[in-house]
Amino acid sequence: MPRSSLLLVLVLLLAICNLSPTAGLAEKVHCDLQPVDPKRGEVTYTTSQVPHGCVAQIPDAVLEVHVLFLEFSTEVAQLELTLQASKNNGSQPQEVFLVLVVNKTTLLQLQAPGIQLHLAYNPSLIIFKEPSGVNVTQLSLSVNSQILEWAATKGPISSVATLEDPSSILLRLGQDKESESSDHSQGQPAARKLPYFCLPEDHQDMGRTLEWQPRVPVPILGCRLGGVTGHKEAHILRILPGPKAEPRTVTVKVELNCTSRGLDAILILQGPPYVSWLIDANHNMQILTTGEYSFKIFSKKNIHGFVLPDTPQGLVGEARALNASLVASFVELPLASTVSLRAPSCSGEPQTSPAPVMTTPPERCDPDLLRSLIRPKCTNGVMTLVLRKDHLQTMHCTIVGLTFWDPHCQAEDSSDHFILSSTYSRCAMQVTKHVVSNEVFLNYLSTSGPSSLKKMVYCIDEDSLSFQVDLYLSPKFLQASSTIELGQQGFVQVSMHPEIPEAALQLLSCYLDLGPEADKVELIQGQAAKGSCVNLLSPSPSGDPRFSFLLRVYMVPTPRAAALTCNIAIHLGARMKDAYEPVFKLVSKHLNIISPAGKGLVLPAVLGITFGAFLIGALLTAALWYIYSHTRSPSKREPVVAVAAPASSESSSTNHSIGSTQSTPCSTSSMA
Fold this sequence. Notes:
The chain is mainly beta.
């Protein structure tokens, strides 16, 4: 038997035979828990608990839609995002649409092996090297509710999650029940029935669909216990209850740097009664847990734990009863899937030499991610490339040189940026068909020494281009118009002049502004039609985006003018992908609104006729009642019990009806 297996068998036997509940033996010991030097230990964890989110089961989904709202506390953040396909190929979706929303500049490392991914994001905030096969979409919306509405137009939403300062995210795709059941024994929550609609709520458990690791360091506390002759140290982990009392297995990985193989370390695990433990340790330890626990090499052999105190001082007392002289780490965590503990030693005896310090290899500057930062802009006859130093610092990249193809054109080193700029007539610039190009050379320091990279860059000379939005009254798009009638269908085309074969227009949003007294009418939002009266059409032969809308206005008075405004993005071809900065423009057109002549009645006329007919009917009814009451025979008249009350009541009711107006969900009316 291998030595490592023999050691774990010894741990198992000791856990079964030698341990007993120590709650009655633990002394009431006061231990002043204080923060531990970060160099003395490290605790990381992954969890499926999110501050706000939801998960839904979409049967036979062809397209899975997932939305992530990520909130970072630093100006520049790094994120590892992994998409994992389902093990069951029968349930794997054909396509995945992921909406990624961040509040700060984010350097993204994306992995999506074997997945047809459509990614919607804001390129001004997210910087990453696009993997092959990923289709990207410009995200122009900023309000979360609007983003969710837009994402729902792509397909039923499978999951929504809001995360705070994540360092890594694992998003599992598909609804694989067999995988869920097998993962339950490996630290994953048990399979549970998911709803068919995703309605985000606070403090949710994403199950196995999403797991993430927070970036904020876990606070570790510790203290020394006096009056103990031994030299054992205790590691105490307390898991706090989750929002739902569902069975959960927490995997605990312990890595100690010990000089001996003796039992000089204690591991105490306390959590809610529905939590069990899977222990993976590289050293012999005394184990004391609540619930049930097992070891990695004997994962099917469950051992019953004990009832332990649920307070910090009570757990410290349990460590004292096991002859621990030092609480090396005390950690409280939310309900987690995996917890990893690393410590440089496992002995509480005094150190005759400095304790070994945990070291990690120096971070490597990723050249692909660094290359993705090189995206210049062109305006006022100047190409400019700006690299922010906080971005470079976060990426652990030290820049020692930045030039164009002409080595004499070097970047300026300011306090916060590297700025490389030149007019179109210098530094070997090439200007062809309104596209400016050059080659950038960048020298930087890496772990192996000085390194360099080069990249062809392009940008659009937007000063030489004009953009316009035109309205047509026919789907043939023959003659532009600036006038539209109420109830008429309009056809819109956004174009660029002159046309550039390498460039393409992307329609992000459009709206109608009917004046200060009316809300804006959204026509296109997030590249999707807004409402049933708007339709996206096939682009023109030259690639200009088109759409149609039906003008219906329920206002009194009817507006006579409107402004049609569209937000567009100009992209270069796939050959220049990741080598340019998209150009964004707002184009607008003034429209005159007229009432249809001879084609029916408009709203004010309808309201006037309706009110007139009601008034005539009320007067005619009053006249007939007057004639009837004064012409019938006195002998047939019925006794009048009260005269004033009915007359007053009838009069007030009539006056109220005459002076009132009605409104419908589709219109708003007013009277002078």
